[in-house]
Structures are given as structure tokens and as C-alpha cells.
Amino acid sequence: MDKKIFSLICAVACSFLWGTAFVAQDMGMDYIGPWTFSAARLILGFLALLPFFFIFEFKKVKESKLNLKFIIGYIFFLGFLLAGGNILQQISLIYTDVANSAVFTVLYVVIVPIIAFFLFSKKIHKSVWPSVMMCLLGGLLLSELGNLRVRFGDSLVVIGAFFWAFHIVYISKFLKVFNFPITIASFQCLTAALFSSIPMFAFEYVSFTVLSLEAAELLYAGILSSGIAFMLQILALQNISPAPAAIIFSLEGVFGSIAAWIILDQFLNEYKILGIIIILSAVIFSQLAPLYDKRRYGRN
After folding, report:
1. What letter does residue 28 receive in the DSSP assignment?
2. Is residue 90 classed exposed, middle or buried when 0-12, 13-18 and 19+ CB atoms within 10 A define those classes?
3. Residue 297 pLDDT > 60, yes or no?
4. Which residues contact 9 (CB under 8 A, 6 or more apart)?
5. How many CA atoms lie within 13 A of 60 on its CB side?
6. Distance CA 15, CA 224 (A)
7. How far are the Cα atoms of 19, 75, 210, 265 from residue 194, in angstroms, in the given order?
8. Domain residue limits, the chain
9. Residues 129-160 pLDDT 10s
């Protein structure tokens, strides 16, 4: 199979798993708290990926002569970003709907070029600024401004989108010096679980009995969304440029909204649907406009 087609399939599958996992995340806090859910799903993600690590990359990593301290430090940093994005997203579901959480998470696509500009002096395409304004408009329509509880939940997701944006930026950087996607996906889940487990034991009651009550939700969000999906994301980024990949990943907002409507009966009124369309249009526009300029004028 062609590498680009394979990466395209990986990206779509990743987006679907991320989107539908929002339903599992929302349903998975009947008996456990958000920190416990996040830590458990990340541990399951690590365990799901560990066999793939030993089969495909263990020998190559062992033979590579890279700075071990640098690699471990970078993976811990990625784990911190992953833990931050995960827990803010998880806590937000206590206060807001799945559609809001799923769609506001997608804002990381618009945030990435802004971060790249400030950190690495990469030129920002002019399409980013109208995209930001469109996202603000879409956010106003999607969020319930008169409901303080929903606004708080939406705010947590927006802050979490910055964690996801930093995560994308630094994974792209890391792959250039350490091109072992399964290793990165595996051990970022482990380190993220470690970061999440500290407040889990401090603030929440943990036992195998209550964890077993959320087994189905944890297995879906852990093995498929936290484990397999992150591996698919990194495999997709190997052969697809960031712009089209970001557009495909942004579909998680659509998958999440539709899944919540069908499974959880979380009805979307016309204002919320319009808000979702505006935000997704902004995301797609921010990625396609630079590609159009590059092809038309031969520049970025």
C-alpha cells in the first residue's frame, strides 16, 4: 500500500477514535473522578502499545546512539503536555456537553501556527487571523453565555487546546531527531499517567472495584483512543504534511458531536450547529489557504 494512503487511513481512523471517545469519557465518570479516569485510560494506552514497541522498535531504539537523558527528558515533557490536555478535557465534561468539548478541542489546529511563530519565528499566514475571529464567533454560538457552568467547562477545553497545540508542535520537532513513533506514543502515555496519578491519589478514591464499574468506557478511551489513536496520529504525521493532517484530525469534533447526539441524546440546536460549522470552516480555511498560496505563487 502507498505510504501516503496508509497515513491518510491512519489519520481518519485516529480522528474517528478521538471523536467517539468523548462519549466514553462522558459516560465513564459515574463512579470515578476525572483524575482517575485520565490516569487509568493513559495506563491502558501504554499497555496496549507496549507489545508493538517490543515487536517493531525496541531493537532499533536500543541500537541507536542518541542521548538517553535528552530522549527521556523530552518524553516526560510530552507526557506533561498530554496529561494537561487530557485532564482539562476530562474535567470539562462535568460542566459542558460533549459537542462543546469536542469542537473547542479542535481549536488547537488554529493555535499551532501562532505558537510556532512565537517559539520558532515561523511566519504566520494571513489566513490565521480571520480564522481566529471565525473561531471566536463560532465559540459564542456554541457556548451558552447565560450558563456560568457551561462557560466554565468550555473555558477549560480552550485552555486544554493550548496543551494539545504545544503537544503537536513538539512531537513534530521530536520526530526529526527521534523517528520512533510507537516508542513516543507508548512512553508519553506512561509519563502522562504518572503526572495524572499524583492528584488522583491525593483527591479521589481509587479501587479496582469502582474501576471495574467503568471498564467498558476505560477500555475504549484507554486502549483505542489513548493508545492506538496516538500511534495512528504519529504514523499519519510521518507521510502527510501537517496542514492536511490537521484538517482530518479536526473531524474529531464532528465525530464527537454526532456520537453524542446519537448515543447520549445531547441535542444540538441551530445555533450550536452553526457554531460548529463556523469553527470547522475556520480550521479548514486556516490550513488550505497557505497551500493555495504556495501552489499559486510558489511561496509560503
Report:
1. T
2. buried
3. no
4. none
5. 12
6. 11
7. 24, 12, 20, 34
8. 3-297
9. 888 888 888 888 887 777 788 889 999 999 99
